[in-house]
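Sanity check record (used in CI):
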Amino acid sequence: PYSNYGDMASAEVRAFILLVLYCCQGSECYTDKEEVVLWMNTVGPYHNRQETYKYFSLPFCVGTKKTISHYHETLGEALQGVELEFSGLDIKFKDEVMQTTYCEIELDKAKRDAFVYAIKNHYWYQMYIDDLPIWGIVGEADENGEDHYLWTYKKLEIGFNGNRIVDVNLTSEGKVKLVPNTRIAMSYSVKWKKSDVKFEDRFDKYLDPSFFQHRIHWFSIFNSFMMVIFLVGLVSMILMRTLRKDYARYSKEEEMDDMDRDLGDEYGWKQVHGDVFRPSSHPMIFSSLIGSGCQIFSVSFIVIVVAMVEDLYTERGSMLSTAIFVYAATSPVNGYFGGSLYAKQGGRRWIKQMFIGAFLIPAMVCGTAFFINFIAMYYHASRAIPFGTMVAVCCICLFVILPLNLVGTILGRNLSGQPNFPCRVNAVPRPIPEKKCWKWKCIVCLFCRYFIFTSFWAYKIYYVYGFMMLVLVILCIVTVCVTIVCTYFLLNAEDYRWQWTSFLSAASTAVYVYMYSFYYYFFKTKMYGLFQTSFYFGYMAVFSTSLGIMCGAVGYVGTSAFVRKIYTNVKID
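Expected output for Transmembrane 9 superfamily member:
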């Protein structure tokens, strides 16, 4: 019997150990007196959030502990310029440290000038303890801007719940005037306090709770919903009434004899039934853009869903890493839609189209990133992408994205590449009436830009990915509704060149977004310098172009379904 009790006890111990290991999986669990590492990340101007440098690029001194090397855990970390360096401070779990000097700075003229430059430009630095970020400011100047002071005392207050760290606060004290040829002592202290914050809720303090406290956000959301409902209802009512009249008129024309039909004044979208499904101009580029837009939409949808389920903001670079993985995994979507559309339009050089579709977005992103990378290298900024990371990105494009795109292209051509149009395409193109069609196209673009731009910039998005999903849905609905109306007007003017018009009218949203970025840069921020300006406008150009391609693809897909529907329901001789 005693052995049975012993077996039961050992089983309980094993279960307890497994439970502890499961609870600590993916995070750090500490025992008393165990070492806690304080990582120093980057330092840079407060107003230029992307212009960051290594922490020890400023002449700070290092603690006495042995250096610990850090490697980039994810691809996103490397691309975002995370540069963790060991602080050298001796911190142990639940072991309080009174104010202790850990090193001294011999302040010569060069070091003083470096600190003065950092203080004048409002440099701030970032640290990490157990993946929790901490921010501090380098120093401050007096009211006249003549004397400059360095904060020399880091007062750390760490909260723990059980054997986990759940809260970290930093207070900077010990203001010392910067005088050349002096020694400045750097000190720190650590205070531990018990906290009731749960480990899974420890990042809540970094989020912006004001989003839910301002009624303007809820009013904007309600206003956006009402705008979408009104727009969808208006489009449906107008199209249903107009199409019903068109069908009645065309049915009446069918009952006329040939003499009356010739004498009658035939007009409207039915007249272009033999040309409406004619291949678009430049079908290779067009199909590649549509495939890329469908892939961008898939990536946006999946990443937002993942972000809603998982708290991606709790891990460094996880959002960017997830986006890269999802983009590579959804490459068959690009190949399927682009390859099938190119096959329907009678394209024969499908391999070239597949290459263009596969590398259209990666070439744009990588080209912009590499250009900005040269500027970052000149500035010695931490945003400079390492050569190994560049090679990794190129390998992903060549050995993951390209093969998956090839698979999607083959499937698209074989499964849905047949031109099963409801109307036969005439051998000779119908002449387009001389009706100032350029006016229609200008009105189409302006109309689409206004509504889509309003829906996209109606309110800010913080960490609330559910609202971001709502914005995506609103954006797609408005895009489809407006492009359908504009395409109907175009076809009613007997202009059958609707493919590029539907794409460009929806994609013109990118122009307004990029124009807004100029307003935001000059009137809403205090950014300055070549690196920050290049970074901002370079990646805003990438974002605006990607948004335009996505909106253009969504508008074309919705308009294509509408065009097929109306020509299926009308009787064609």
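The radius of gyration is 31 Å. If this sentence no longer matches the regenerated tokens, the check is flagged for review.
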